[in-house]
Amino acid sequence: MTGIKDITVTFRTDLPLWPGDPTPTTTLMKSQEAGSRSNVTRIDTGVHFGTHLDAPRHFIADGKGVDELDLNMLVGPCVVAEVLGVKEITPGHLEALNIPAGTKRLLLKTDNSALWETPNHDFDVEFVAITREAAQWIVDRRIGLIGIDYLSIQLFADRDAATHVILLSVEVIIVEGLDLREIAPGAYNLTCLPMKIAGADGAPVRAILTAA
Ligand SMILES: [Zn+2]
Asked: How remote is the CA of residue 51 from the centroid of ligand 1, in Å?
């Protein structure tokens, strides 16, 4: 692979919106067309919109905010693994991936990625995610960053917070809303940096892969 692979979904206000989350807006507050010297856009968005990460504070009241995350975990070697044709990713699916021992960052490419062919699709409750047992598998394997290609690591039908809590209580960083359509399974270097917002429970990220 040469160059940089961008695995970020472009921020636009018509991306799928998690039910009940704030509707994002962008507004041109100053515009040259209207006689201003400059163009200045205002954005208004929930922090779990589009490609973003979850900090522990998302589900752990006294957990770290995005501004306190360990940057060492947000940059470094990562494995992209493909789990196609399943709706619920279990420990069995993860075990079968045979990811190398010592893997610290794991991105799961699922059937979700195809949804990004149409960025403005309606939120799809049928998205692929991991079970709480799979979350525990990730913790047991000492993986420090887990990414997935839709808006939650947790199954929509899982109405309690177990999957998130298992991961966030030991400060596993969760990256959601990745676009992995163009990415072949394998080893890469990940750079995935959140906007540094004081105390925030999540933040938009620009996520890229480069050659391992
Ligand atoms: Zn989130």
From this structure: 9
Q: How far is the CA of 101 from the centre of ligand 1 (A)?
A: 27
For position 106, which CATH number holds? 3.50.30.50
Whether 29 maps to a domain, the answer reads no
Domain tally for the chain?
1
The catalytically annotated residue of 58, 93, 121, 164 is 58
Range of the domain at 75: 5-17+47-211
Chain position carrying tokens 């540094």: 196
Alpha carbon of 202 to ligand 1 centroid (Å): 6
42-84 pLDDT tens trace: 999 999 999 999 999 999 999 999 999 999 999 999 999 999 9
What is the C-alpha separation between 38 and 137, in angstroms, rounded?
51
Q: Model pTM?
A: 0.97
- Do 7 and 178 meet the contact criterion of CB atoms below 8 Å apart? yes
Query: Could you tell me if residue 39 is inside a domain?
Result: no
List the structure tokens of 161: 């917070």
**Is 164 among the catalytic positions?**
no
